[in-house]
Amino acid sequence: MDLSGPAKRLTILIGEQDHVGRHSLAFEIVKRAHAAGLAGATVFRGVEGFGKSNHIHTTRILSLSDDLPVCIVVIDSAPVIAAFAEAIQELVEGGLVIVEDVEVLRYVRHSRDDSGPAGREPTG
């Protein structure tokens, strides 16, 4: 897949405890993005945040949270992101879903062999 120039970024902000059936919502969204052939998806786990409930979720020891913020980022062409965003709308029961314009400067897939990143031998 060649992805360069104007594209869209789909960002989904949810809670770590959000689930679809037995799976986390983040896992389900990434699984669906992969199955749909999107360019890629990444999940980030936040250390602190709050949303519509105005309750602060944090990793600080005195107020350890079991529902930390999770951010899922997917970037692809505008039509692909539009279709995917529509397909996952029913999954996000609480959270925030946004789409933004981005400019892809470089998109290179890694080779998938056992020798580590970009075909180099693993270190360590």
Description:
With 124 residues, the chain is of the alpha+beta class. The chain has a single domain (5-106), classed as Alpha-Beta Plaits (2-Layer Sandwich), CATH 3.30.70.120. The protein has two helices and eight strands; from the N terminus they run βββαββββαβ. The strands form three sheets. Strands 4-7-1-8 form a four-stranded antiparallel β-sheet. A hairpin with a 7-residue loop joins strand 5 (48-49) and strand 6 (57-58). It is globular, with a radius of gyration of 17 Å. Residues 114-124 have low confidence and may be disordered.
Brief synopsis:
It is built from 2 helices and 8 strands; from the N terminus they run E-E-E-H-E-E-E-E-H-E. The chain has helices at residues 25-35, 78-88, and strands spanning 5-15, 19-20, 23-24, 41-45, 48-49, 57-58, 69-76, 96-104.
Instruction: Tell me the domain tally.
Output: 1
> Radius of gyration, Cα only, in angstroms?
17 Å
Model regions low in confidence, pLDDT < 50 over at least 5 residues: 114-124
Q: Could you name the CATH class? A: Alpha Beta
Class derived from helix and strand content: alpha+beta
Major sheet: size, sense and barrel closure? 4 strands, antiparallel
